Every structure is written in C-alpha cells, then in structure tokens.
Amino acid sequence: MKKLLSTIFVLCLAWNESLFAGHSVKHKQEQMEERLEKINDKNLLKRNAECQDVLESKNKWNFLFSLKDVESYYVDIEGSYPTNRDDGYGSDIFQKNFAVKTDSKLFWYQLLKNKNDDDWNSLLVNALDYLPADSDLVNYMSIIVFFNSDYKKTEYKKLEDLYLKAINEGKINFGTNIHLKYQKDFFNEAHNFLKTRLVLGKESWDKGNWEYVLRAECKAFPSEKKPNLKEAQDAIKEMIKKKTN
Predict the structure, then answer these.
(1) Taking Cα atoms as reference points, which of 140, 135, 83, 131 lies closest to residue 108?
(2) Are 140 and 128 in contact (CB under 8 A)?
(3) pLDDT tens across 19-30, in order?
(4) What Cα–Cα distance (Å) separates residue 214 from each residue in 53, 83, 169, 238?
(5) Between 177-196 and 153-173, two packed helices, what is the crossing angle to 10 degrees?
(6) Which residues of the chain form beta strands (DSSP E)?
(7) φ and ψ of 144, to 5 deg
(8) pLDDT confidence band for 224 (50 / 70 / 90)
(9) In this structure, are residues 216 and 52 in contact, taking their beta carbons and an 8 Å threshold?
(10) Residue 51 in contact with residue 75, Cβ under 8 Å?
(11) How far apart are CA 97 and CA 75, in angstroms?
C-alpha cells in the first residue's frame, strides 16, 4: 500500500511539474511574442514611415517599403519630399528605389545628372535608421556628393555605367533576377564608394565635395490595435448579465 501511495505521489508530482513547465514555456513564448510585437511597432520596414524635415517642418512625406528579398527593399516616396522627381536619366526617384539593409541601416543611392553642366553631376546617398531609439530626433539623412573636386568624373562615370545598366534593364524586365542583379551591382559600387572614398566633415564640405540635402525624423505608421480576446469575452458576459437581471 505504501508503495502504491508513493508511486501515486511521484506521478502527481511529475504531472504538476509538467503542467508548471508547460505554463512556463507558454509564458516565455508569450513574452517573446510581446517583445517582438513592440519591436515591430517601431520597425519602419514593418510599418512604413512618416517623415518630417527637421529644418523645414512643412516638408513631410512617407516612405513605403516593399520587400524584394531577404535584405533588399524597394522604397516609394509620397508627399512633399524636397527633391526633383526626375534624376536626369528619365527615372522617377520617388518610385521603386532599390535599398539594402546593412550596418543596422537601410541605404539607397541615386545619381542626379545635370544635362547642362557635368561638373554638377552627383551621387545622392540616403541612410535610414529603421529601428530608431526613442531619443533619436534625426534618423534619416540624405547627402549629395559632387565629382568636381576630390572625387573625380571617372568615378562618377563608373557609377553611371552601372546605373544606366539597371535602368535600361528595368524598362524591359523590371523586377526580374537579371534586373535585381544590375541594381545590386550599382548599389555595391556606390556603397563601396561611401565606405572607402567619402570623407565627411568641414574640410571636405568647404571644398564642395558634399552637402546635406535632408535631415529628418521618421516614425513608424501607428499600428492598429489588435482585438483583445479576454476583453471581448468580458464584454459579452457583462451584456448577458445585464439582460438577465
């Protein structure tokens, strides 16, 4: 009898432990999901972004992101974004800008061609911190780089050849693997220029190598509140209770 009671006690203890363990796993899973939801609420790539120029408050626009592959996105722009729509190559820079996640930021690059003066042909560098801290006022920056001083026209020409290749392929086969490859080729060349050649700072700015185009605060679109099942159940119970009384 004692042996039977001992066995029952051990089984009950194991059952309670399994219940507790199951509850613990479920609780941890719920905590992880809650943390992930909070991250997604701040993640501009998940919610899209509402932006405002920190110097010219009248300039407001939205960045709309569409996933292309694991690291690549297209960025569309809506609103009073203070640059020309035409890049000088017949492309609308408000639409389908190829961007890549790197260094905890989203980067995309465009060329701006001045048909009247090659000295003002330029590279537009866009950098967006897509998971900004609450304290960050500026999490989007755009600068324009010129090729008539420290940076040479031959460097621009190398970028231009890749840029045109991507544009021309896109006119025929937009979004295909070949088009994506050409877009990545241009991105990689421009990003390498940013990492290995571009020098920011007053001395470089005084030489006319670069200047700011935009500094802005971008926030994620507000997320729609998900319905709370428990709140809904309590509300139904309250309605039934009132009707029966």
Answers:
(1) 140
(2) yes
(3) 555 666 655 554
(4) 7, 9, 30, 54
(5) 160
(6) 49-53, 60-67, 72-79, 97-102, 105-112, 122-128, 140-146, 210-220
(7) -115, 135
(8) low
(9) yes
(10) no
(11) 5
- 150 contact partners, CB below 8 Å, separation of at least 6: 199, 204, 207, 209
Tokens 């544009």 belong to 167
Question: Which of 64, 142, 139, 81 is closest to 108 using CA atoms?
Answer: 142
pLDDT at position 187: 98
Q: Are 89 and 74 in contact (CB under 8 A)?
A: no
pTM: 0.77
Q: Copy the structure tokens of residue 199.
A: 């020098």
pLDDT confidence of residue 133: 85
Token pair of 240 as six digits: 């039934």
* C-beta of residue 165 within 8 angstroms of C-beta of residue 186: yes
Task: Determine contact, residues 76/95, Cβ cutoff 8 Å.
Answer: yes
